[in-house]
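Researcher: I'd like a structural prediction for the single chain below. Treat it as a standalone chain; there are no partners to consider.
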Amino acid sequence: MTDISASSFVRQDLVAERAAPAKTTGFIGFLRTRLLNSPGNILLTILGLLLAWYIVIPAIKFLLVDAIWTGKDRTACLAEKAGHEVGACWPYIQAKLTQLIYGFYPEAHRWRVNLTYGLGAALLLPLLMPRLPAKALNSGLFFFAFPVVAFFLLHGGGIAGFGMSWTAGLFELFEQSIGGAGDLLVNLSKSSAIAPLLWVLGKLLVLVGLLIHWLIFPLTWLRDQLQASSAPVWGDFLLTAVIVSAVLFVLGGGMRTGHRALIGSLLTFAGIAAGIKLMGLDRGGFPIVDTRLWGGLLVTLVIAITGIVASMPIGIALALGRRSTIPLIRIFSIAFIEFWRGVPLITVLFFATYMLPLFVPGNFAVDGLLRALIGVAIFTGAYMAEVIRGGLAAVARGQAEAASALGLSWWKTTSLIVLPQALRYVIPGIVNSFISLFKDTSLVSIVALFDLLGSLRASFSDPNWSTPTTAFTGFAFAGMIYFVFCFGMSRYSLFVENRLNAHRRH
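Model: Treating it as a single chain, here is the predicted structure.
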């Protein structure tokens, strides 16, 4: 055999040096790996640069470089006065800023709007910070106490009664509606081809209304006695607190465990009493500011926040109802969702503004802004129902089966297991609906409500600021406000989504 020496496998000369690897970090690396790494990306980069050159740079030039920053009237924003090409007219925004924020809200009472903004921010920011404690108390204050306080701060007025009076008034309104419908049918029977049927139905409704009248007579008598007393608000408040606390004490377990519910109820009523006293609601409260004077960012935020908060429970209820095994609930939910999703928001606003008053008793007036809020909440709730239904469908069937095997009821299974997972899955869709609602608030200007864009368009009619760039400046400013709110919601939803889905990341 031929001997093979070890030197046959050892290289005798050095290997030539290789070129250094391409840099993948820093600005040069970013250009090489992200913008210029393929013919397609090179083309897109060139198109992006052209787009920035023809759109972004002129916009910056208009808003900042060529902008006019000081002035007292329109002459400061004219090219003849400035001596060069004029950009944005920011003195116009400075002059109209209060109108864009408050609308025609009386200047002497704008501190009430500012206080409402401050209270809302002070309660909302702790809710958005995951590490802060007392989330349950904070949520209760923001979703239940703050809307009541905000209403009396913004609208003004006081209260003439409390729970007992309100309950009696609600039942009395129901009784009047039933009786009024019966009288209407009886009158229609005089000139109808089906007169006997209408007469019978009318008389039946009249009898039902009379029966309700006698059933609620003790409650209305008690209401009248309270109103005739020297302190109707506090007497009604004390009686309501006693009744509600006693009911919660019994439902909470009586002498064994009901003391916790009793203490919570008493503390809640103590807080309500402090709010009534501080705001003087038992003495008429603040001066009333009609909602027709509201406008600008105030109306935009009121409609958007109310729609967002109200649409969630409506959407959850409709989504669960659409999946219900009870035919009546399922059919009603499907019909409700498909009806409101089948009409545009403008139609809903027209219906709520001009037709809703026709369906309520003549002695019951519904405020114009409240009608728009009802329409927006119902419309958004129907869309929210389909988003949440998609999340419910994404939850594995075994989750509910496992909960059933453990003996959990349907309510506990839905609220503790199924619904939290479903909402986690559809966070992007929910926030997308919120962003869409915030932008759609501009449609309320069609029904004579001056939101941010409505107040902006109204300010264009001022001849003191009529310049070629006034409209562009105003719409640019409004666009910035909308972008800040919508972009903030988008980024926070991304943060929440990443935090809740941390267990899915590898």
